[in-house]
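Retry 2 of 3 after timeout on previous attempt. Resubmitting structure tokens to design endpoint.
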């Protein structure tokens, strides 16, 4: 039985998967600098007889052909970049690159896709079509490796009709998978505001244009975008995470105040309308107080939508592979993810892989680690899902 074969191969290769993951974990590379990771992936794929191509400088594309290779093409995606975080774990496979760490589990994603590729190649007489492997650079940094790969034509020659991707989930135990049909992750835009007025002595505010007060008004009033202008049924988050000025003191009003924030939502039309309203309101607020503001919005990733039909199909095969009790309904997230770019082009399904570690650490923290038994699950499951036409 095919499922048994996949599970046996995943088990047989599990020590090798752990060694791949530890190697990648020890040698993390920042977004768009994944040169050694790219080389590592390319060499492994070629050693198994899989043809490869380099795209977006540090991305690796692999093609595996089963029976009737022209009958359909499915893409599998893994991101490969690490984060600018200093690891504080004391494990033997701790990061050897100072200040750089796989704290978002992209070492696991890369390893699982390698593991899936090895199984798919070994069993290529047992499934139909072509599998396109996308080892993607730069998920953690704008404009996102996915958007570059798409511009370079990753969704053509051959054109995948669907795409699957997975992400580690520290809230789920090993052996469990989190799935959500429809809207799954939010669009995420960066907000960068400079409020300008006229600085001066704190004792003579009438001779100044108070930038601190303008910034305060702006922060409070812009929240009305969420409470009054956003559709109550459409999740929207506006968060300001930093406010600072170069000058200023207990008795000095600074010339300029800067505010940094993020806007997240799930609808493209509303997203653009929200940009327009934020800029207009901010300008009016500052104008009414005799100042000006420079309100920049840096457009980030779009929202991520899991195609309903593909997600239902994928879920059914996850249940066959892992048991229905291990496939969990997972809530939407306001986090961003550049897999969203693929989901805007073709039917996509992005799911969460349980990796819960006893140390309880979360994503993007300096003590993040995973339960490595998740590698066998993540690799085997991805191979199994890819075989289902
Ligand atoms: Zn991340
Ligand atoms: Zn990530």
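Retry 2 succeeded. Sequence:
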């Amino acid at each position: 039985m095919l499922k048994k074969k996949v599970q046996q191969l995943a088990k047989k290769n599990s020590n090798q998967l752990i060694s791949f993951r530890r190697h990648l974990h020890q040698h993390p590379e920042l977004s768009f600098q994944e040169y050694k990771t790219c080389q590592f992936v390319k060499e492994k794929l070629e050693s198994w007889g899989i043809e490869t191509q380099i795209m977006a400088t540090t991305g690796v594309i692999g093609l595996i052909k089963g029976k009737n290779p022209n009958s359909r093409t499915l893409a599998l995606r893994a991101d490969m970049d690490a984060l600018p975080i200093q690891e504080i774990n004391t494990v033997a496979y701790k990061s050897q690159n100072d200040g750089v760490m796989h704290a978002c589990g992209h070492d696991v994603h890369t390893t699982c896709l390698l593991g899936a590729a090895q199984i798919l190649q070994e069993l290529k007489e047992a499934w139909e079509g072509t599998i396109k492997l996308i080892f993607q650079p730069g998920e953690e940094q704008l404009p996102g490796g996915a958007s570059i790969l798409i511009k370079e034509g990753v969704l053509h020659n051959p054109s995948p009709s669907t795409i699957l991707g997975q992400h580690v989930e520290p809230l789920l135990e090993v052996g469990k998978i989190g799935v959500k049909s429809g809207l799954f992750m939010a669009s995420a835009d960066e907000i960068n505001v400079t409020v300008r007025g006229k600085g001066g002595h704190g004792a003579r505010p009438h001779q100044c244009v108070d930038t601190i007060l303008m910034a305060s008004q702006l922060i409070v009033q812009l929240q009305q975008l969420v409470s009054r202008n956003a559709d109550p049924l459409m999740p929207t988050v506006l968060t300001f995470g930093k406010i600072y000025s170069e000058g200023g003191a207990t008795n000095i009003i600074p010339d300029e105040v800067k505010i940094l924030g993020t806007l997240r939502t799930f609808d493209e039309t509303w997203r653009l309308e929200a940009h327009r309203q934020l800029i207009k309101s901010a300008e009016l607020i500052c104008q009414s107080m005799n100042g000006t503001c420079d309100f920049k919005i840096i457009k980030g990733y779009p929202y991520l939508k899991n195609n309903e039909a593909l997600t239902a199909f994928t879920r059914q095969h996850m249940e066959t592979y892992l048991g229905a009790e291990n496939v969990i309904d997972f809530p939407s997230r306001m986090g961003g993810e550049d897999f969203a770019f693929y989901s805007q082009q073709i039917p996509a399904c992005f799911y969460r892989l349980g990796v819960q570690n006893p140390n309880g650490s979360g994503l993007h923290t300096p003590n993040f680690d995973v339960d490595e038994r998740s590698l066998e699950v993540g690799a085997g499951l991805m191979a199994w899902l890819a075989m289902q036409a």
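Attempt log closed. The first strand starts at residue 51 and ends at 55.
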